[in-house]
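User: Please fill in residues for this 415-position structure.
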């Protein structure tokens, strides 16, 4: 026979049921919390780079490439078409000013010089001949002038006698008129002689001047040829080192062709190259940071080539320290041209976390947790990037590329 369950028994059973459910829920929560800790997003500290936000002065730069070249270099060219006769100094040899490096065959050039000298002698003889001829012509004219002046004196005397004779009734008016006409004709002839002498003098001066100019030009050609013959020894104008030369004896060299180079290796400059997209940003005097191995040198843009070649603009950088120990001829260097600068700004090391966008997300490190944060970026250079908003001085941020985790608000950093 069934017995009725008391209210106290029912109440105890319900309490037990509640206790079991509560215990089960607590266990479930503990299990979930435990496994959540096991599967929560995390990243090993060894896989990240961390940098602190700093405050100070900041420079924005654009990158370029360059190579070290001598500060002073002499390029020696062939003075005329000739064959290489002798090598006097080899590449790497030290030379003094005036010292010969190469010797060219000068036979043809020497013959040309003798020809020029012969032509000058001929011109000088023509000048003397022409001068004597013109002087004789002027002398003859002056003699004629003297004769004409005497003739005029005679005609004046004849006229005066005719007038006196007519006054005493011994001559006619027609005779006086004829004497007057003869005197006037004589005076006109004298004026004509004077004009001819003046014209002949100017003509003589012009002709002799033309011959003098021709002789001067010939003398100039002779001096130039003599200089070319002297340059056939390819003399250095510097105290320096032979860095390049033509090395094939007997090679035919054309006039103006480069045959040797001498450089002063006690000072250097930088020959830079940059894509023409940045050509408008280049300016004479622009500050430049030059990275030579581990050292950073300072310089300024000293010269810019006017046109681009194959999309590349060439420029030169004058160094503040032209004799730095790290510099070597033809050494490749990295150039950073300073386009802008700011004082007292926040900045941090520029690595993969920064993509060039003005607004982006980065992870700040707070203990063992990295939290995503929105930041604003300003100027940048090869080493650092300016932070204009979102961070404060002393913040630690992960500068490694975090694109894989950018969807997460935070993640754990494991030691």
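Assistant: Residues filled in for all 415 positions:
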């Amino acid at each position: 026979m069934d017995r009725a369950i008391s209210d106290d028994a029912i109440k105890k059973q319900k309490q037990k049921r509640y206790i079991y459910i509560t215990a089960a829920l607590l266990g479930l929560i503990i299990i979930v919390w435990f496994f959540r800790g096991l599967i929560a997003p995390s990243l090993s500290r060894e896989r990240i780079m961390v940098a602190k936000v700093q405050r100070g002065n900041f420079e924005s730069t654009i990158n370029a490439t360059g190579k070290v070249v001598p500060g002073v270099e002499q390029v020696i060219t062939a003075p005329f078409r000739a064959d290489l006769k002798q090598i006097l100094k080899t590449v790497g040899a030290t030379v003094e000013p005036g010292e010969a490096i190469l010797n060219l065959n000068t036979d043809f050039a020497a013959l040309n010089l003798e020809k020029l000298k012969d032509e000058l002698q001929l011109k000088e003889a023509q000048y003397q001949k022409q001068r004597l001829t013109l002087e004789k012509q002027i002398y003859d004219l002056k003699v004629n002038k003297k004769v004409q002046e005497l003739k005029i004196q005679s005609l004046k005397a004849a006229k005066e006698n005719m007038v006196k004779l007519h006054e005493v009734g011994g001559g006619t008016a027609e005779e006086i008129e004829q004497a007057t006409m003869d005197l006037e004709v004589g005076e006109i002839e004298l004026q004509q002689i004077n004009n001819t002498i003046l014209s002949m003098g100017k003509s003589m001066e012009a002709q002799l001047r033309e011959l003098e100019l021709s002789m001067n030009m010939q003398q100039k050609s002779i001096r130039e040829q003599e200089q070319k013959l002297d340059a056939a020894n390819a003399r250095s104008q510097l105290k320096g080192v032979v860095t390049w030369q033509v090395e094939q004896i007997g090679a035919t060299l054309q006039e103006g062709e480069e045959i040797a180079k001498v450089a002063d290796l006690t000072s250097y400059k930088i020959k830079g190259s940059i894509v023409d997209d940045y050509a408008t940003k280049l300016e004479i005097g622009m500050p430049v940071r030059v990275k030579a191995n581990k050292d950073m040198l300072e310089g300024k843009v000293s010269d810019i080539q006017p046109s681009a070649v194959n999309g590349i603009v060439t420029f030169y950088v004058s160094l503040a320290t032209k004799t730095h120990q790290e510099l070597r001829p033809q050494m490749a260097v990295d150039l950073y041209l300073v386009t802008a600068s700011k004082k007292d700004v926040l900045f941090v090391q520029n690595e993969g976390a920064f993509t060039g966008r003005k607004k982006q997300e980065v992870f700040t490190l707070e203990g063992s947790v990295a939290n995503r944060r929105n930041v604003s970026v300003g100027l940048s250079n090869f080493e650092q990037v300016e932070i204009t908003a979102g961070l404060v001085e002393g913040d630690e941020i992960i500068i490694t590329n975090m694109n894989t985790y950018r969807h997460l608000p935070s993640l754990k950093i494991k030691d």
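For context: Confidence is low (pLDDT under 50) at residues 34-39.
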